[in-house]
């Protein structure tokens, strides 16, 4: 299987029946998790009951993107695993933030930690991280091989690097928070749906997957705003949505 499954799509906190940021990427048996925010872990377990994943990538330390990584830590620590460490690619603040939950437990006993930004070989993919503007260090992630390119912004404000991150990608997963009251100038740390469409166009992406919706937002309106700036396929990251990867 070659696909992306949406585990969670909310920003800040989960709405009823939903979860915060999380995606499961599968490619010919290799499983990679992108972010694991509030309530995303139970959804991951629904798709992978044995938690048989090969790598985890966390874009930044905000809990709506990383808090359920601690639950995964406890499963690997106390469950019936083989004792091997799970590769974890993340910004330095992630471990610092999660270590405060259980200071006596060393997260590195479970995770083989690789710092982002950086470039790594991760299973069938070349992984590259691009620093993007947010309230804390955030890294946009690109996964690429000779058949597909998948890009994910994490949380970000407008930045020219968004065009490079998603360049000619098959699927571009982009922050579309549309948060009312987000300052417009001079520095912003979240995107609107229309901006998500703009940057997908600048990148030459084939498909755009909108995510990180502010709770209560009208998702159909967000998709319409994105389509006003992007001529390709626009998808809404609803939980359990499955998006095929690669040539169709």
Amount of helix: 10-25%
In total, how many domains does the architecture comprise? Answer: 1
CATH superfamily: Ribonuclease Z/Hydroxyacylglutathione hydrolase-like
Strand order of the largest sheet: 6-5-4-3-2-1-14
Order of helices and strands: EEEHEHHEHEEEEEHEHEHEE
**Structural class based on helices, strands and sheet pairing:** alpha/beta
CATH class: Alpha Beta
The CATH architecture assignment turns out to be: 4-Layer Sandwich
Distance from first to last alpha carbon: 13 Å
The CATH topology, please?
Metallo-beta-lactamase, Chain A
| Count of helical regions | 7
Number of strands: 14
Shape: globular
Strand count, sense and barrel status of the largest sheet are: 7 strands, mixed
Strand content: 25-35%
- Average pLDDT, all residues: 95
Runs in which pLDDT lies below 50 for 5 or more consecutive residues are none
- By oligomeric state, this entry counts as single chain
């Amino acid at each position: 299987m070659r696909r992306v499954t949406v585990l969670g799509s909310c920003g800040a906190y989960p709405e009823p029946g939903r979860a915060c940021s999380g995606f499961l990427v599968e490619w010919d048996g290799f499983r990679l998790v992108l972010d694991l925010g509030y309530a995303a872990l139970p959804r991951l377990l629904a798709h992978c009951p044995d938690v048989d994943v090969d790598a985890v990538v966390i874009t930044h330390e905000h809990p709506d993107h990383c808090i359920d990584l601690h639950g995964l830590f406890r499963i690997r620590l106390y469950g019936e695993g083989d004792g091997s460490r799970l590769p974890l690619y993340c910004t330095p603040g992630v471990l610092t933030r999660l270590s405060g939950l259980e200071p006596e437990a060393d997260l590195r006993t479970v995770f083989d930690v690789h710092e982002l930004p950086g470039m790594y070989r991760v299973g069938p993919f070349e992984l590259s991280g691009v620093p993007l503007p947010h309230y804390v260090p955030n890294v946009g992630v690109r996964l690429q091989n000779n058949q597909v390119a998948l890009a994910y912004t994490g949380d970000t404000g407008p930045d020219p690097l968004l065009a490079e991150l998603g360049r000619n990608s098959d699927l571009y997963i982009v922050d579309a928070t549309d948060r009312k009251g987000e300052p417009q100038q001079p520095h912003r740390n979240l995107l609107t749906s229309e901006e998500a469409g703009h940057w997908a166009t600048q990148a030459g992406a084939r498909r755009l997957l909108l995510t990180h919706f502010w709770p209560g937002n009208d998702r159909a309106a967000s998709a319409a705003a994105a389509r006003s700036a992007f001529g390709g396929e626009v998808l809404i990251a609803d939980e359990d949505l499955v998006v095929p990867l690669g040539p169709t």
